[in-house]
Amino acid sequence: MLIEILGTMTAGLGLFFIGVKLVGDHLKQLSGRKFRKIVTKAVNNPVRGALLGVLAGAATQSTNAVAYIATSMTTAGLMSLRGAMPVVIWANLGTSALVLAATVDIRVLVLYLLGMVGAAFYFNLDRSSRFRHLIGALLGVALLFLGLQFIKQGAAPLREMQAVRDLLELGADSYLMAFGIGAALTLVAQSSATVSIVAVAMTSVGLLTMPQTMMVIYGAGLGSAESLWFLSSNLSGTSRRIVLQQIILKLASTAIMLVLFGLEQWRNIPLIQALTSWITPSISLRAAWVYLLQQLLGCITASLLLGPTLKLLARLAPATREEELARPVFLYDQALGDAETALDLVSREQNRLFGDLHGYIVTADHFAEPTPRDVLALYRGNTGVSREIDLFLAELIDRNQDRQTMHRILNHQARNRVLDDLRESLFTLGRTLEPTDDGREPTSLAHTLAEGMHVILRTMADTLNSSEKIDLDENEATMLTALTSDRSALMERLRHDLLGHGEKLPHSVQESLFAATSLFERTIWLLGRYIALVVPIGAFDIARHQGTENGTRR
């Protein structure tokens, strides 16, 4: 009998965990881009931001997911850290929705829901981009509640077993043990709501007393703070600030609830347990209310202390160089109302990114050479801006533009793809031309390649950003086309010379130089593609014709 009971409970836990995972993953996909747009409008008002946080927490059932979205938007400059905090704080209260729902007996509804989801899978609706995430989320809900029914069904006979009764009597007054169990399970499950739901299910069948359940829930709050602390160890800047704020919230709410618990248990002052008994006679619903009150007190405390907390977080986790670089300079949502202005701003943002490309190549005349960490920060920051440009252009497309405007949008999307390829190529080229680990200085060829690429990039960047106009004139187009003319014959000659006269160089250096010449050649080709997209078609045709004539004379 015991084996069957444990098997039923294990299966229930498995279904429950699968359901939680499916609900979170698919709802995050459903709320991704639309959620970002709603957040940008809501964070200007703290009350709207708090309401949005509650809805986001209820939808995703993950404060980490809400924090991740808020972090990416804050890093991109779409909202301030102070504006993002109410959303992140009150998402904790939203997670209590699932805990409350778990107390309701909806067995028949879950069975019908599972049948409808199965029919959707049979008719391949799960493969539709429109319905895929909705069906996945509904499947998660069905499995989640079905798993809870299995847990309750398996746990019910345990209270009749004498060994279990003896164990419960032994631990009836050991609140510390219940608190530790809640913290430990949360570290494993990575969700205080998940552990609290299981505790509520155990309470409903009489395996846990109300005080024990309360301590398990409070311990889950501490365990959630501990898991977030481990997560924050690899974070920095805004990401770390948001996670640290969540840790402070969870520790504060747990501390408050423990103080209230002690006053109620040992001073006989009617507080949380008395309040929940007044709200409802159902012991499982009372346990769910304990979780909700813990989150509510934490949210209120964090909101009242938000100002001092932000000052403390600014000292503990200052903004990183990468975050500063990842903020667009010219893009803002209000510009989306005028497509032509918006595209002019995109041009300036892309020209600014182009101006950063020379930073990936270290030359001998640099007075303060960038370290690998600086180059990596530049690379990641530029990548973040490029993502924001893509989102900005996608938003423009959604606004039903005319044919000419659509042509410009597609052109800018193509520029962005080439910029991404250029960034990858130059980042790799820069690392290839760096001094080797054994301290050996770069060869004269490496110096020449670095200097040549640096000059080309600086000249092109200066030309693209030299005036307030968006398009280049004929003379500028001719010069840039000549700079990006085909270098394949020259690179092939250099590689041939390496084969013939490179015996004195170590094999690793020869390999590095061969790779560098190939990357140099590819980068020049990509630069030519970019110029072809930037220069107006008529000017580009003239410039290409003149470049061909010049090449013929040479």
Secondary-structure-based class equals: mainly alpha
The portion of residues assigned to helices is over 70%
Unreliable residue stretches: 538-543, 547-554
Q: Please indicate the percent range of residues in DSSP E strands (runs of 2 or more).
A: under 5%
Order of helices and strands: HHHHHHHHHHHHHHHHHHHHHHHHH
Instruction: Give the helix tally.
Output: 25
Q: Let me know the number of strands.
A: 0
Q: Report how far apart the termini are.
A: 92 Å
Rg result: 31 Å
Mean pLDDT: 79
Largest sheet features: none
Overall morphology = elongated
Structure commentary:
- Residues 538-543 and 547-554 have low confidence and may be disordered.
- 77% of the residues lie in helices and 0% in strands.
- The chain has 554 residues and is mainly alpha-helical.
- The longest helix has 30 residues, at 237-266.
- It is built from 25 helices and no strands.
- It is elongated, with a radius of gyration of 31 Å.
Itemize the secondary structure elements and their pairings.
Elements: H1 2-30, H2 32-42, H3 46-60, H4 63-75, H5 81-94, H6 96-101, H7 107-122, H8 132-155, H9 162-170, H10 175-189, H11 192-204, H12 210-232, H13 237-266, H14 272-279, H15 283-304, H16 306-316, H17 321-325, H18 339-355, H19 372-397, H20 403-432, H21 444-464, H22 474-483, H23 488-501, H24 507-534, H25 537-553
